[in-house]
Amino acid sequence: MDLTLIPNIKHTSANNFFLLAGPCAIESEEMALRIAEKVVSITDALQIPYVFKGSFKKANRSRIDSFTGIGDEKALKILKKVSKTFQVPTVTDIHEVSDAAMAAEYVDILQIPAFLVRQTDLVVAAANTGKVVNLKKGQFMSPESMQHAVKKVTDSGNDQVMITDRGTMFGYQDMIVDFRGIPTMKQYAPTVLDVTHSLQQPNQSVGVTGGRPEMIGTIARAGIATGVDGLFIETHFDPANAKSDGANMLDLNRLEKLLTDLVAIRKTINQL
């Protein structure tokens, strides 16, 4: 994948990691613009290539009454407005083959959720749009097996593909990050570490996923030290009241300090 080919991507010559960050789901235009404005300000100051992340819908919910979105077209139009307002690329996840062409009209990167990364028709549909494809590693998959998911994209004539590790299942209600997988997956495509989803505690008896956000800094620092190409961080100005994945999101007020520390670590790594 050539990062410089992503529309509106900035700071590609800074030799920094790139960042995919934003809310779990698009809740409203006001919240999306508010989060984007803050993250753009921070990443511009630190010269971090930035992609705004927001799901236009959430299809993989634990309970039928969980929040799934504000309407597909409405949310996608908000993502487009974020891109135009701040001149940054955007990424959203898709869940069905029909989502690929629809979402591609509004965003720059199509993300395949971890639970669906083995769905060949979905991966190929995303690849056929010509957009960058972000493949989330299945919680049930080895790092080595991701080469086949990458090959589905490249065999479809699209070499704009990256992998995102989001942890591996450890028992029924916990995730772990095996950092040995980072250099393995980097052999196949640029590799991102999804810091916040790696700290989920799924399958809770109440039907709402838990998390350990106090460990975000630890996992992120370890990822940079291991040599990840990018980081994925879900952030919100009010995680406790976020409509999706609030239990493992980073408070937006803590993002600047974290990214400042990570840039310093990356600079040190670059000098080794």
Automatic annotation (TrEMBL):
<dbReference type="InterPro" id="IPR006269">
    <property type="entry name" value="KDO8P_synthase"/>
</dbReference>
<dbReference type="InterPro" id="IPR013785">
    <property type="entry name" value="Aldolase_TIM"/>
</dbReference>
<comment type="pathway">
    <text>Carbohydrate biosynthesis; 3-deoxy-D-manno-octulosonate biosynthesis; 3-deoxy-D-manno-octulosonate from D-ribulose 5-phosphate: step 2/3.</text>
</comment>
<dbReference type="GO" id="GO:0005737">
    <property type="term" value="C:cytoplasm"/>
</dbReference>
<dbReference type="GO" id="GO:0008676">
    <property type="term" value="F:3-deoxy-8-phosphooctulonate synthase activity"/>
</dbReference>
<keyword id="KW-0808">Transferase</keyword>
<dbReference type="GO" id="GO:0009103">
    <property type="term" value="P:lipopolysaccharide biosynthetic process"/>
</dbReference>
<comment type="similarity">
    <text>Belongs to the KdsA family.</text>
</comment>
<dbReference type="InterPro" id="IPR006218">
    <property type="entry name" value="DAHP1/KDSA"/>
</dbReference>
<keyword id="KW-0963">Cytoplasm</keyword>
<comment type="pathway">
    <text>Bacterial outer membrane biogenesis; lipopolysaccharide biosynthesis.</text>
</comment>
<feature type="domain" description="DAHP synthetase I/KDSA">
    <location>
        <begin position="11"/>
        <end position="263"/>
    </location>
</feature>
<dbReference type="Pfam" id="PF00793">
    <property type="entry name" value="DAHP_synth_1"/>
</dbReference>
<protein>
    <recommendedName>
        <fullName>3-deoxy-8-phosphooctulonate synthase</fullName>
        <ecNumber>2.5.1.55</ecNumber>
    </recommendedName>
</protein>
